[in-house]
Amino acid sequence: MNDLTSLFPEEKSIPASVKLPANNEQREYLINGEMRTWNGDMSSVASPIFIRDGSDYKQKIIGSTPLLTSKEALEALDAALNAYDLGHGVWPMMTVAERIGHVENFLLKMKEKRQEVVNLLMWEIGKTQKDSEKEFDRTCDYIVDTIAALKDLDHKSSTFVQEQGIMGQIRRVPLGVALCMGPYNYPLNETFSTLFPALIMGNTVVFKPAKYGVLLIRPLLEAFRTCFPAGVINVIYGRGRETVGALMETGKIDVFAFIGTNKGANELKKAHPKSHRLKAILGLDAKNLAIILPDADLDNAVSECILGSLSFNGQRCTAIKIIFAHKSIQEQFIKKFCEAVAKLKPGMPWDNGVSVTPLPEPGKTAYLSELVDDAIQHGAKVMNENGGEIFHTFFYPAVLYPVNDKMKIYFEEQFGPVVPIRAFEGEKEVIEYILNSNFGQQLSIFGKDSKVIGHLIDAFANQVGRININAQCQRGPDVFPFNGRKDSAEGTLSVTDALRVFSIRSLVASKITDDNKKIIGNIIRNRESAFLSTDYIF
Fold first, then answer.
1. What does the alpha-carbon distance between residue 233 and residue 459 come to, in Å, rounded to a whole number?
2. Are 292 and 324 in contact (CB under 8 A)?
3. Which H or E run contains 391?
4. Of 209, 256, 471, 528, which is the most exposed, with the fewest CB atoms less than 10 Å away?
């Protein structure tokens, strides 16, 4: 515990390069191309970082954001509806090349704000500087890749199909008004991985930033305002029940992009009065399993499981949330795993080589302690030294063994640095765990016997969205499909899949006659339609 108490910094020891401006009170919000000022109640933004003053510790308040009401949320919706104008608005009627140009302008302005956004990621959610920089850069790369994928899609759509005496051109068109909400653990990357596909396909958007990781959108508001037509992107803040609930109840949201819990998604979807008209793209809970087979390369398995279970303190939907190690190697695996945990450096996000940082969610350390206590009551032990120790927002990783189905940690997604391990003897045990799980995002298999691995692949291929061989669970590369089964997801995201889920195919068709060919030829040559075109975007 003495080690943890010394980790929080004194004010004078914080590097100047990562310090935030003294006043981060944000009263601006964006509706209909206007930067409006809020004069009502505000929500304080508390950092997970405490400042040490002698023996006293005080949580750092780094700013505040507007507590908008349903009135402002509905004004944002009206702006998005007007900008879409039943598909006749300036934005949905733009050519693909024109929309790409707007997004490219935004990207240039976004890159100018890199350091501000990175610093806010560190202070708001406790993400390490290295990972914060990686999140920013990966988000920029994602936007670039999205543009490239849309160009490729447009190239394929620029031709005419001829079949059974009918010719037609098939293109993807927007769905309408999208509500985009991202998670606190990747408040930039995962949020923008839905926001920008929605925008670039011609939808208009109401965007509500994550509950934690909200201030980091502020440096980008002006770029949103200047780079897109009025009403195309509207950014609101406030309590979800009041703002988002009001939006869904109108029935005027066409697309719901949400990354969070399946419980939250269910409640919001139920609020929509026309559920059959609501397209949902959801990234939800997961309880990803790692299976350590008898012949696994233990050094690799430990290395990948450490990354998989404890990167960003285990606060990733793709994190490994439970490990099944074969009885024949279970003791050796746990010993090596605990040794690897001991090498993880706790500290501040900006410290060199740091791995364990403070947790941003209020009450999270208490929740994780309850999971550990519950497991101990049902027969588990904390296997690593200092495992489960707490100081304010710090929670030192806890490795639990043996776990069983009487424990909450066996089924619940902990979303934090607690690693439950169970020994297994036969493959049937791990197969039944996956079959009976409420979740189906990913799993990892560690081993060398191709016959055994092949059998497990077939057992799990219809249960989860991705099977990783001798590697941790993860989302990337972004060209790969990212989805899940059961309560883990709805819809598929990747650079190309995201463009598809935020659009629908539409076509113009006619019988192949000389008159019809002449009409369509004139439309294309004279550029009389934004839809019908054979232009090639370079």
1. 44
2. yes
3. strand 390-391
4. 528
- pLDDT of 379 strictly over 60: yes
Q: 401: Cβ–Cβ under 8 A, 6 or more apart, which residues?
A: 330, 334, 380, 381, 383, 420, 421, 422, 423
Torsion of CA 59, 60, 66, 68, to 10 degrees: -20
pLDDT band for position 434 (cuts 50, 70, 90): very high
Tokens of 52: 């040490």
CA 161 to chain centre: 37
φ/ψ of residue 354, rounded to 5: -75, 145
Distance CA 295, CA 448 (A): 6
Show the tokens assigned to 481: 């499909």
Q: What is the pLDDT of residues 46-101, one digit of tens each?
A: 999 999 999 999 999 999 999 999 999 999 999 999 999 999 999 999 999 999 99
CA 534 – CA 538 distance, rounded (Å): 13
Alpha carbon 530 to its chain centroid, in Å, reads 33
DSSP string, 332-364: HHHHHHHHHHHTSEES-TTSTTEEE----STTH
3-class secondary structure, 139:
helix
On the 0-12 / 13-18 / 19+ scale of CB atoms within 10 A, 7 is buried
Distances in Å between the Cα of 427 and the Cα atoms of 80, 286, 420, 430, 514 are 52, 21, 18, 6, 66
| Residue of 491, 507, 504, 494 whose CA lies nearest to 92 | 504
Structure tokens at 514: 């000389």
- How far is the C-alpha of 438 from the C-alpha of 284, rounded, in Å? 11
Compute the half-sphere exposure of residue 93: CA atoms within 13 Å on the CB side of its CA. Answer: 10
At 71, is the secondary structure helix, strand, or coil? helix
Distance CA 174, CA 201 (A): 6
Which amino acid, residue 299? Answer: D
Say if residues 522 and 529 touch (Cβ distance below 8 Å): no
Q: For residues 370 and 373, give the distance between their C-alpha atoms in angstroms, rounded to a whole number.
A: 5
* Amino acid at site 6: S
DSSP 25: B
pLDDT of 34 over the 70 cut:
yes
CA atoms of 24 and 37, how far apart (whole Å): 14
**How many other C-beta atoms can be found within 10 angstroms of the C-beta atom of residue 472?**
22
1: confidence class by pLDDT, cuts 50, 70, 90: very low
pTM: 0.95
**Distance from C-alpha of 455 to C-alpha of 451, rounded to nearest angstrom:** 6
* Vertex 216 angle, CA 57 and 100, to 5°: 165
Helix 189-200 / helix 129-157 crossing angle, nearest 10 deg? 20
- Across residues 435-464, what is the average pLDDT? 98
User: Counting every residue, how long is the chain?
Assistant: 538
Run of H or E residues at 193? helix 189-200
